[in-house]
Write a structure and sequence with these properties.
Length: 104
């Protein structure tokens, strides 16, 4: 999993790029989501899971997935500056993680 940019300002967006390769001998049905661990006012983090993709991956198949995650201001979420973490979840299991800075 690759994310860019390394630092994003509130109002901006984060680009998430994922490369999947099947090592199985049978087709796989996958649910791929991602969790953003938002920094709270007290400095701790709280994860929020966002829906990503549902797909079937054939044996040996490689697939590239991309998504933009927006940090525009919304009334139900307050953003705080700091080091945030993003995790890639495949069928509910963490498969990759990366960190980025959110600038307020």
């Amino acid at each position: 999993m690759e994310i860019s940019p390394a630092a994003v300002a509130v109002g901006g967006a984060l680009q998430i790029d994922v490369m999947l390769k099947s090592s199985q001998r049978a087709s796989q049905n996958l649910v791929i989501d991602y969790a953003v661990h938002h920094v709270k006012a007290n400095g701790s983090t709280s994860p929020k899971v966002f829906k990503g993709w549902r797909l079937e991956l054939a044996p040996g198949e490689t697939r590239r997935l991309s998504k933009r995650h927006s940090f525009k201001l919304i009334t139900t979420r307050r953003y705080h500056a700091g080091r945030h973490r993003i995790e890639l979840l495949v069928n509910g299991q963490t498969m990759a993680a990366a960190e980025f800075d959110l600038l307020v």
